[in-house]
Structures are given as C-alpha cells and as structure tokens.
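User: quick one - fold this with uracil bound?
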Amino acid sequence: MRMYDIIDKKKYKKKLSDEEIRFVVDGYTEGSIPDYQMAAFLMAVWCNGMDEEETLSLTMAMAHSGDMLDLSMIPGTKVDKHSTGGVGDKTTLSVGPIIASLGIPMAKMSGRGLGHTGGTIDKLDSIPGFSSDISDERFIEIVKTVGFCDASQTKDLAPADKKIYALRDVTATVDDYSLIASSIMSKKIASGADAILLDVKCGNGAFMQDVSSARKLAECMMNIGKLSNRQVNCMITDMNEPLGNTVGNSIEVIEAIDLLKYGFDSDKVDKRYSDIVLYVCREMVLMSDIFKNEKYENTTEEEKILEAERIVRETVEQGKALQKMKEFIAAEGGDSNVVNDYSLLPKAKYIYEVTFDRDGYLDSVDTKEVGMASLMLGAGRLKKEEEIDSAAGIRLYKHLGDKVNKGEKFATLYTNKEEIIKEAEVRLLNAYKVSEKANSTKNVIIDIIRQV
Ligand code: URA
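Assistant: Sure. Structure tokens for the protein plus uracil:
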C-alpha cells in the first residue's frame, strides 16, 4: 500500500477502505508517513469529505492508536461530557461535582485551550496544587472514591489525534465534519465512558457557525457512537455570545463554584450559564443508571425528565455538589479551601475597569474577538506550548439585549501585562454592536437530540 495512491484516491472522491485508513493513521502516528503527505491527505478529505463508514474507520483507527482506558472495574454506567469548544465555557467545572454528588460516576479527560477557545484543564490548573497529570490507576481510583475525576489527555491516549490535530491546526483543515467528529469521538472512545453527552456549540464563537452545521456534526458523532456501542446524546447550544460573566481561568473557576454555592436561580449567577449546567446535568442523569430501577418501571419519559431536573436542583440546594467540588479538588492535589476563600486563587497585578463608549442596546458580539481579547491579556495561547496566565481574563457586566450607556461600567480586565490593556480594551469594545431597540435574545439551548 502506498500513501501516494491513497491521497490520489481521495482527491478523486473515491471511498477509502478500513485497511487504507488504518494504514494512514498508523503510518502517520509512528512516523513513516511524513507531514507533507498527511497534509495533502487531510486537504483531500476536507475538499471531498468522508462517508459514515470512512469516518467510523478513521475514529476507530485513532482511538486504537494508543491506550484504551478500561473502566470496567468501576460499577455502573460511566458518563462523560464533551463540549466542542467556545468562549467562557466552564460548564464541566459545575457539572462534574453535581453529577458525582448524585452517585453517578463521571470519568472525564479534558483538553487545554487553543486560540480563542478556553480549555477546562487550564482553568483547573489555576487552583493551587491541582494536578490533572495523573496515572490511569489514580484516575480510576478517584472516579471510584469521589465520583468525578478530570484528567488531561495523556500522551498515550489517542496519540494519532494529538499529532493529526496539530497538523490540521496549521493546514486550515480543522473545520471538517468527519475530521472534527473522529477527533472528538476517538478520544471519548479511548477514555472508556459508556454514555457520552456532547455539547455542540453553535455560533460565531464556535467551530460550527450555524444550526444546520451543528446538527450535521451532532448526527455524525451520534452515528459513530451507535456504531461503536456507546450511548451518545447531543445538545446544540448557542455560542453567539460568551457563556456566563467571565472569560479566563481562575475567574471562571470562581463563577463555576458560585453556581454550586448560590444555586440555579440566584441573581448572582448568569441565567444562560445556569441553564446550560442544569440541562447538561439533566441529560446526563437520564443517561445514567438512576432510572434503570424497578421504582421507575411505570414512569413516563416526561416524568423522568422532570424528576432528573428536580434531583439536580436538590443536590445543589442541599450543598452536596459544593461539598463534592471540595473532595474533587483535594483528590487531584488542589487546595480545597479555594471554595470558601477565592483570595487563594492567583490574582492579577492590573485590574482595569472598562466603560462603554456608546448608548444603545447590545445587539450582537463577535464572540471570537472577546476570546482573543482575553488571550491577549494572557488567559490563552496561540501555540500549544505557550504558557498561560491563570489570573488573566475578562469579567463582563452586560449581555446581549441589555441597555448600555456611554460611560457606564461594562467589563473588568485582569492582566499582568500593563502594556496590552488599551489594545485589549479597544478589541473588546469593537467586538460589540449596538442597536436603538432591544432585540429578542436567543435561548441558549437550541436543541437536544437523544439516541433512540
Ligand atoms: N475538539 C477536538 O477535540 N477536535 C476537533 O477537531 C475540534 C474540537
């Protein structure tokens, strides 16, 4: 088999066999296929696509390119969630402790932020002592004892995806359905969970810009789930505005803890953020073993949905999820006192108040630009190896639909780089458009698609 022939075949839109796809993935991972041939192959896939069978072959080849985590020693259905990435998405940090406090084992591998999108591992790293770099044995132990563990993807888990993703990033081949779906699902399959809830972000801060593209990606991943015997459900959620009030790392940890402290209906918590957390948790409860019990034999689907929502609210109201957050932080070596004392988290040297520069109603925002302004302040990275500043970021006081006045407090910038403040301020303000009348705002939950 020759890589040249496989590239040529895809160039002419021909279907590749499972064997050919495995040849490409294995050859590139071990180094016998060079970057230039793999780049040509990825571009041929980007231009001509892959069908369901080819996408499944690609996913399984990448999943099996390294270790496959075996979670069978943890009793019950192990659930996981994954977001396709956005700005201000700290959902996992609230969801994990809530799910674990309900006795549902949640085994999660998360990534770091890249470009305008943030990563859960970077946010967790802002907690003093916290380490997501843990062995498989310890990972399983924490899921068993605490109920929730979040680890960074080890070098041995889906190494093909790591290498291919880095090449896609510099060859303009990230935004393809088959390549995104196989990248996400290979990691999910290799990390062992039985039931996976995917939060497919949609809008100008996400990979998928419109609902039909997001739905196509969701269906593609659900299909891979079905063919690989994993239960996969999807939510399509809006990313036409940053999620919540904060974009950064330590400030997002605080926002996630605040939800567990004050509850879903508190005015201290952003409504779009609390809605996403509530619905993600509800869907994960529905996928867990909770309702696989005689007690619920005659319960209708509608009643189960209401009951799932009720128990999610209850565990937060009773303080159980907050307690679980402390246990989870401690289990991964972090200082759990941060939950009660936010001053233990890294603090920025410069805190700068931004006032708004026009009158009107916030009409739209280029979400990616808000992510880039936060990155400039130090909260993100453009290249994988760059260091980030845990204390940097942006706190927003206004959301789409809100009235804004010239001179009114709009945002706070946190940074250790004084020289960048003015540029970040201009970038942030220019990202917003105002109108004379308030336009209706979109619901953050666009759709929920459950496997039948
Ligand atoms: N997240 C991933 O893990 N892979 C992609 O290709 C896109 C988003």
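One thing worth noting: The mean pLDDT is 95.
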